[in-house]
Design goal:
The chain is α/β, with parallel strands linked by helices. It is built from nine helices and 13 strands. Strands 1, 4, 5, 6, 7, 8, 11, 12 and 13 form a nine-stranded mixed beta sheet that branches. Strands 2-3 form a two-stranded antiparallel ribbon. Strands 9-10 form a two-stranded antiparallel ribbon.
Length: 326
């Protein structure tokens, strides 16, 4: 028995902000693209529900996986910008989906939150307590953005992505490595003013070192090398960071997925959004080996290896495939 990603879904707000919408911050499209790779981002309306957006992403993931809501007993949502302080958004998402009384809770680990939630889901399945777990990353970072700060305002976007994590058969078991360092909180945090603060240069250096190092660690745990990855999906914070991690690891450019140009930094929603978009673009095939990594506030970080739609989930010979051969 192993564990696989059985399906993915994505949901984005309708409103699009281009780089030209930030010229009042003494910046330009060229300046932003050169430094970040970002061209546009989505913005959730101030009176809109993030839980509704998350529900849409989860419904798509369930459909893609061919898993019914009644088969889900655990729902985990990674978010730092929920609609309410309490209860957790996972409870509302589960109710909206018609999932009857599941274990449901939120994970708050910044941009690394999705990998923390995914690691938990894998452990639940490996323990035999469930065959399917629904994991979502959803953020409305516009709620914690200082819209007068050029260094952060241009980086952040809103969105939701989700995956179904399922019991499967296969020879490759997932491997994850997570970590944190509370001595460096001041590099990236949201304080009492509910606004995100970041020291960009130091974040860049730490992100590259820790994401590359931990990805190498999980590759070694699986007995794999960079050429064994079918797709490498890093947290879409900044294209320069992702490319620096890729070069450090020796992953070829054609195996790296980037959608930061369209969605910007969506924190915990970043990786599941990227997976769903890669699936839409037919870049994934059953049994594909995925390398995932993220870095964020805390400081926190993580990396993992997991397969895409490995066969024989819940007695089914092969999962539904909405993506295609690479």
């Amino acid at each position: 028995m192993t564990v696989t990603l059985a399906g993915a879904g994505a949901a984005l707000p309708e409103r699009v902000l281009s780089n030209h919408d930030f010229v009042h911050l003494d910046t330009s499209d060229e300046w932003i693209v050169q430094r970040t790779g970002i061209r546009e981002r989505r913005r959730l309306a101030t009176d809109a529900s993030l839980a509704e957006l998350a529900t849409d992403a989860c419904a798509q993931a369930l459909s893609d996986a061919g898993v019914a809501p009644r088969d889900i007993r655990h729902v985990v949502v990674a978010t730092s910008t929920a609609d309410r302080i309490s209860p957790g958004m996972a409870v509302e998402v589960a109710t909206r989906l018609g999932i009857d009384r599941p274990a449901a809770f939120d994970v708050g680990a910044g941009c690394s939150g999705f990998l923390y939630a995914l690691d938990h889901a894998i452990a639940v399945i490996e323990s035999g307590r469930s065959e399917h777990v629904l994991v979502c990353g959803a953020e409305a970072l516009s709620r914690i953005t200082d819209h007068t700060d050029r260094n952060t305002a241009v980086l952040l976007g809103d969105g939701a992505g989700a995956v179904v994590v399922s019991k499967a058969s296969g020879s490759l078991r997932p491997a994850f490595a997570l970590g944190s360092d509370g001595t460096q909180i001041e590099l990236l945090y949201v304080g009492q003013d509910r606004l995100l603060r970041m020291r960009g240069r130091e974040i860049f250096e730490n992100a590259v070192d820790l994401m590359a190092g931990h990805t190498q660690l999980v590759l070694e745990q699986c007995g794999l090398g960079p050429d064994d990855l079918d797709l490498f999906v890093a947290h879409q914070a900044n294209s320069r960071i992702v490319q620096a991690v890729r070069r450090r690891l020796g992953v070829s450019a054609d195996r790296v997925f980037l959608n930061v140009d369209k969605v910007a930094n969506t924190s915990s929603a970043s990786i599941p959004l990227a997976l769903a978009h890669a699936n839409e673009q037919r870049l994934l095939h059953p049994g594909a080996v995925l390398g995932l990594t993220a870095f964020g506030a805390g400081l926190s970080w993580g990396a993992g290896i997991i397969t895409w739609k490995s066969p024989a989930v819940h007695g089914v010979d092969e999962l539904p495939v909405s993506g295609g051969e690479r």
